[in-house]
Amino acid sequence: MRILIVGAGIAGLAARRALVRRGFSVKVIERNPSAGIGGAGLFLPGNGVRALCDLGLQDGLFQLSHPVNAQRFYDERGRLLTAVDTNAYWQGVAPCRAIRRSDLWQLLNDGMDPGDIEFRQIVDLVSSPDGCHVAFADGGMDAFDLVIGADGVNSLVRGLAFSQPVSPEYVGNVCWRFIVPNTCSVDEWSVMLGADRSLLAKPISKTELYIYADISVDRAAARDYSHETALLPLFGDMAGPLRPALELSSEALVHFGELVRLQLGSWYHDRVVLVGDAAHASPPSMAQGACLAIEDALVLAEELAAAPSIAPALARYQDRQKVRADWVHQQCAARDKMRRLPPALRNLLLGFAGGAIYRRSYKPLKKPL
Description:
Layout: E1 2-6, H1 10-21, E2 25-29, E3 41-44, H2 46-54, H3 58-64, E4 66-67, E5 70-75, E6 80-85, H4 86-89, E7 97-100, H5 101-109, E8 117-118, E9 122-128, E10 131-136, E11 141-144, E12 146-149, H6 156-161, E13 169-181, E14 189-193, E15 197-203, E16 208-216, H7 219-222, H8 232-239, H9 243-248, E17 255-261, E18 268-269, E19 272-274, H10 277-280, H11 289-306, H12 310-339, H13 343-366
Parallel strand pairs: 1-2, 1-12, 2-8, 5-14, 12-19
Antiparallel strand pairs: 3-7, 4-7, 5-6, 9-10, 10-11, 13-16, 13-17, 14-15, 15-16, 18-19
Helix pairs in contact: 1-5, 1-11, 2-11, 11-12, 12-13
């Protein structure tokens, strides 16, 4: 079986590793020669760490990542609302970790044949129940038994292969992500919640701090913000101990984006299948983007190895993973709705039931794949 993976991000590299470990022949194409360079940080809850361990990456992951022993939720004045002992909650699954995105990208590449990745771009795709014919921007053409779209939320594969492609939907927030030296003495995952904005920090190493900040704005106003926006005026009143990190943001590589969601009725068509954000992008409030992408890779490879043909394998893959992705979408929507409650009511709710809300939201993801 000849398999083409379009996209060499987290989803694409995880799919390649999972498939190669199952004995499949895989080619990966990526249009960006700088893929894997830069990026900010990632929080990996227990289900994502478990998936990486299932890919045989446990030793490398624990060397490159930083433990997340607790998640602490504060109001805009720095008062603790609730704290979750993540080690206790995720016991029996895997511990939570934080890591640079570039380090995770390299980890997924370790031990793989560098010749598997070709830096070229797809421009057309014709799929049938028997296979896929692919045209590339350099004029080349090739045929594959299966094409895997791992090319992100704005997936070109999805647009070419699906007759009625769905566009990502803006959820009402813009965000900034960056890494700075940890001069704030923040020792655990910590978020401060304002009326219409939040500021999150988590150590990704002994000396580095990953910062995530977002603010609620309507779509028309979103264009007023960019990676050059000064963050201290927006978040300074609620920054507290994170103020030094905001002051350092002007010297950091800041990644700016609009938060979107994408829900599809089906993740596959003929011999084309989607994984990761190309299939089910969601806002980051559940920290499941990378986690679900890696899970997708494991489940897809398992089903392709077990099924008598490709069609039932793709159906089984979707049946198993779509329920998890749909749950994450539901929980993200519920969290965003709670965030937009009047601050006094939201703080009371988190202070009284924050731990229970956390435990309920992740419970299905603790189950084995």
